[in-house]
Write a structure and sequence with these properties.
heterotetramer; A alpha/beta; B mainly alpha; C alpha/beta; D mainly alpha; A: five-stranded parallel β-sheet; 9 helices; B: mainly alpha; binds adenosine-5'-triphosphate; binds magnesium ion; membrane (chain D); transmembrane helix (chain D); transmembrane (chain D); ABC_transp_permease (chain D)
Amino acid sequence: AEPIKVAGIYTVPVEQQWVSRIHVAALAAKDRGDITYTFSENTSNTDYPRVMREYAEQGHKLIIGEIFGVEAEAREVAADYPDVAFLMGSSFKEDPALPNLAVFDNYIQDASYLSGIVAGAMSESGNIGMVGGFPIPEVNRLMHAFMAGAREMNPDITFQVSFIGSWFDPPKAKETAFAMIENGADMLYAERFGVSDAAKEKGVLAIGNVIDTQGDYPSTVAASALWHFEPTLDATIAKVRDGSFTAADYGVYSFMKEGGASLAPFGTFEGKIPQKALDLIASRTAAIKDGSYEVEINDAEPASS
Amino acid sequence: MDILEILFSASFWAAAIRIASPLIFATLGELICERAGVLNLGIEGIMVAGAFSGWIAVWAGLPLWGGVGVALLTGMGFGLLHATLSVPFGLSQHVVGIGLTLLATSLTFYTYRVVLPEVSSPPKIDAFQPYEIPFLSDLPLFGPALFSQTPLTYAAFVLAGLCAYTLYRTPLGLAVRAAGENPSAVAAQGLSVTAIRMGAVIVGSGFMAVGGAFLTLSAFDSFFFDMVNGRGWICIALVVFGAWRPGKAVLGAILFAAFDALQIRLQQTGIGAVVPYQLFLMLPYILSILALVVMSRRAEVPAALMVPFNKGER
Amino acid sequence: MASDKMAAAPGNAPVLRLQNITKRFGSVTANDDVSFDLFPGEVIALLGENGAGKTTLMNILFGQYTADGGGVELFGAPLPPGAPRAALDGGVGMVHQHFTLADNLTVWENITLGVEPLLGFGLRAGPAKARIRALAEQFHLKVDPNAKVSRLTVGERQRVEILKALYRDARILILDEPTAVLTPQEADALFATLREAISLGLSVIFISHKLHEVMAISDRVLVLRHGRLVAERLTADTDSDELAALMVGADVVPAKFAANTPGPALLQLRDVTTPTIGAAPGLQRVSLDLAAGQITGLAGVSGNGQAALSDLISGLISPQSGSLVLNGGDIANWTPRKAITAGIGRIPEDRHKTGTIADFDLTENAILETYATRFSHRGWLDWRAARDFAKTVIAGYDVRCPGPDTRIRLLSGGNMQKLILGRVLEQAPQIILANQPVRGLDIGAVTYVHEQLAKACARGAAVLLISEDLDEIMQLSDVIHVISEGRLSPGFARGSKQPEDLGAWMAGHGFDTPQTEDGHAA
Amino acid sequence: MRLEPIAAPSWQRRLMPPALALLATFAIAALLAQIAGGEPLSIFGLILTGAFGSKFALLETLNRATPLIFTGLAIAVAFRAKLWNIGAEAQLYAGAVITVVLGTGALSLPAPLLLPLLGLAAMVAGAALLLGPALLKTRLGVDEVVTTLLFNFIFLLFVSYLLEGPLKDPMGMGWPKSPRLSPEARLPRVVDGLRLHWGFALALISAVAIWVINTRTTLGYEMRAVGQNAEAARFAGIPVTRVILKTALLSGGLAGLAGYSEVAGLKGALTLDLSPGFGYTGIVVAMLALLHPLGVVFAALFVAAIFVGADSMSRAAGVPSYLADIMLASALLLMVLAILLSKFRLRRD
Ligand SMILES: Nc1ncnc2c1ncn2[C@@H]1O[C@H](COP(=O)(O)OP(=O)(O)OP(=O)(O)O)[C@@H](O)[C@H]1O
Ligand SMILES: Nc1ncnc2c1ncn2[C@@H]1O[C@H](COP(=O)(O)OP(=O)(O)OP(=O)(O)O)[C@@H](O)[C@H]1O
Ligand SMILES: [Mg+2]
Ligand SMILES: [Mg+2]
């Protein structure tokens, strides 16, 4: 079939972890010949609606992106282009009155929770450092899930939480991580680039988030919670193709049971993770997949404990 | 940890020196420009360009010091552009600076995207590693803080000394300082104000770029967009804070970095739980302003700063 | 002293030869086919009205401008144009009309600037300072090599400028209005230095508007008018009157000053002390009466509190202690605006920096002090009235300019000064502060300014004339005070003191002894 | 070499350099597009259509110019008095914050009353933010370039705190974002369905107002005098400190209006990325306009057109979108050079 014209609009460069997952999925679909794909990165929210309109005017059939900062305006654009499907990262729910705009988010708390189990099991000091960019829901919920997982292994564990006030300042994230290590952390939650580097340099462990960074830090990153955008995108492409695309919350496609999230292979840490943790991970994975266990979704700002 | 404990830990000071290093390079660069009479607002963009070019050069196979050299040259290139527009043509230094920051930043991002079109995570290089200076690094407190840094940090301090020496103890330094104070004094002694000012801007811009490269070659090991994150603007403040003197400017950079390091650590203390994190992030800026207020009376601003010199006009 | 210097005989080879120099700035021809020779040990005085082209000619010789036509030969070899470096290396030293010193450097640093190769290591401070001290000794140029220039007085700066030239072994010394900012004593010291230099074979080109100086120091006088060399005289064969006439192109009649009968004191200073700011001394318990219909002269070496007195009367500073009494009443919250409304007309010392705004046109400059009171209605400016006022001033005070819309930057100093004078006098001020009102002006302009001050006085205004030119003070003033280190001498009636007596007061003598009422030392 | 003013430049002399500058900018863009694998020759048309090609494009250009006119005026006013206000970014946010604080229900007034009130409040907020650095300058001699620059960082962190704390939208799903303005607090749109709003008209009115102030009022005269020569102004009895403070209030107020116009006109709510550097671009605009208030309007339109056009072109031509910023920067640098060369000639000397 004719490939679908798809455009991506991102407010950050495509290297950013979150967006990179969308970008990679889109590139894969493009390589399969399902879609044609073009994108704009680093688009400020001021320009965002204009870029949406432009892509719509150019005849793109599906526009993916993130409208966390421009919810209302983006919806206005969608209303003006009813023939274009919009799949947008959003903290809000779908609106039945706007059938051509569906929402998604990286609901990978399942995987974060599992990675937390690894962290809790492997931290000897019971002190875990967490470095975040901004305390927004997307970050908060994963941190909470991670913390819940870690507490499963060690209820007395303490967490240091810091926000660096930037999405992209690896040297600063690294400095913050250093400070946490000085302060007793032997396990870091690497929400930002830079944290694993500090862990590697100081010989402590780290847990990856959204992407698998073990390749870069083979003896540092013990586990990673991965987000896979492919299920979300593939479902969308199918629905656009058969004309059944409609307002919906595609967030569920990020759930583990949909294949939208997973714990990365342990790789170099195979065999180093305590059996007790592996057992819990196995049972919880199964429970999550069959729906008998649900990881709590908590969007509140996490605090040090 | 309480504040005192933090302040007396070597690792805290080590962090402060580390955070200060890129600022020292760039502040010295800006200081040289301003001493010669040119406000270089291109600093932020030049740092971005330096961070990228140094890193990409190493990624492409050059040794680390080669990367530093490439960054230096890149900075000098942008410096040449700034100097040409602001010195012989005497265009507004505000416009040229802001324009150059925009140009250097966007050109860097563009080049990055053209060179690395489809990466989801930028490649890493083997960055500078800390080098413990024998004996010195064993000193209590100072050893780990001062003498267990990466070679590029040592270079920053050497450069500071070199700048101070050049400015105050060499004929060239005299000429640069005079050019920023009263260019006609320089011209009347048969020297070319244009050449001196342009030279200062070019060399100063080179140092700024090395400051940027510190971020990718020493503080971190790959390049990200927005990595410089306003550090250039801080350096403009540091020059004023340092009253246009290299020694004071270095102290200012360390002080600023210390507040940054402190703010990171304070977030983990008891107050960190109650005080919004933004307040901690503000701390270095607020204290900079307070320090400026205290220092303001005594600073001697180069009299011809931002004043173009044109032989034909009076 | 000049006649024995006829060694400037044609037989000797000239050290410097200017040939057919022409220089145009846009439509203005600043130098028009100027040629002359300078001989070893000779002093040439270059005379001309403001804007006659003297500075331009010297700038061409020094390589700061490039001539449109003609050439310069130095010691028989052609001098490459537009290269100050070549001129310096060829032995030309220039003391510019405006000082060219970097305030943030020390004296020795300023002097050695650019002498050693720029890319060399280290500065040999020791030998440099030793040499400066030796030169200072030899040429009576007392100055501390380690002093920062920002701390120097005007006279000291002038010495540094000359040392700069001597340090480079200059064979030809160009001095562009070197005495314009000097006290008589300083000027005398400068001449002593010059004579020393001449005796060692240096040649000098000397620019000045002060004819008695020209008569005293030069061997030969060249007169420029509108860029052309219009006359050449041996100093021995001419006199001041002829030179003045040559410059202006017509005879000059100096202003006449009749002795006035004083009226009541309009402004009184009672025991006023003001703070010392930096190197500038404040006033020390100064009492002074400015009486109606009388010119009060203030003599003194610059930097002895004149600035403080002038700032005080202008409204820029308030007394620290003591009081200011205006028409019999004390004044509080003293500001420039208050001073203006109180009828004080102020002619500032520095017309470029304080008197005018260079990029404002004449209209805007004319209303600078009165825009708020005379030309505004509820915050709106009445430009038509302002322009008319500017035209009145231009016409009434002989301001030579293309029109009220010209930027004042383009006017010569004399015309700028006339505009300031006009804007002040048009307010019919009862008290006039005239701080160095004729500094740097040519004879024609000087006469004009003096006449205007005399007229104001005649209609009953109280005038305070501050000047470092003792001749001017003695010529104009009904009463003379001397200021030294912030202290004020008693008033001396016209003709009651000789220049030497005043000079002694200026040097600080007489202040410590108790005074009798009439101002004579007991 | 030196620059010599041309007494009466001919119209060719005036127009040639800017035209060449524009051409050179396009040439640079074409070259870069070629390097990135784009089609160099097509970009000219794409930029033009991107900026002006449709009603939508044109209005988008006007839209983007709106905040730039405000910040450009803010900078022009301040720079003319030699008050180096680099903090328009923060002042813009101050205006936006107060608009949101008062416009989300705190004041329930009908639109014709509420809108002017909000605008006034935004001006006060922006002005208040510049007053601090201005006082530090006049009272203590602290360099305002640095203080206003640092204030940008401080105030943005403060906004970030507000958006995560007291000003956070309870319905915002935890995202740092303010509640939406009530409908009465929204500036109406000029054309239904498109984003252009009456903030643009307000910007034009402001430009004319500043022009009138500059040329016709005592304040304008005072501001110019202080900027050109503060010492002479003080001597002449102009209350220099008061004039600087008034200038600061006016400048900050204009920047505050930019925030008001963006929130009340365009966004309807406040986020931390309300402004992609409008405060800094305002400097570019003001300098391109040679600090002339009416020139600011044209400069803002020029900058907006380049940006919108080139941004759109980069998408259509499939080259990295950073090309737009490159074009903007080159256009700025080449244009100021061209403006200079249309008034001066280079002479060997
Ligand atoms: N840089 C310049 N640009 C344009 N015109 C100039 C410049 N310098 C001088 N002129 C012109 O040259 C003429 C001569 O000026 P110059 O400064 O040489 O006069 P001067 O004889 O030194 O006067 P003064 O006695 O006031 O010092 C002036 O009328 C002026 O119009
Ligand atoms: N940049 C310039 N452009 C055009 N003309 C100039 C310029 N600078 C000076 N001039 C001209 O040079 C002449 C002399 O200028 P100058 O500044 O030497 O005046 P002056 O009479 O010496 O004043 P003062 O003695 O107060 O400094 C004036 O007639 C003025 O028109
Ligand atoms: Mg002259
Ligand atoms: Mg003169």
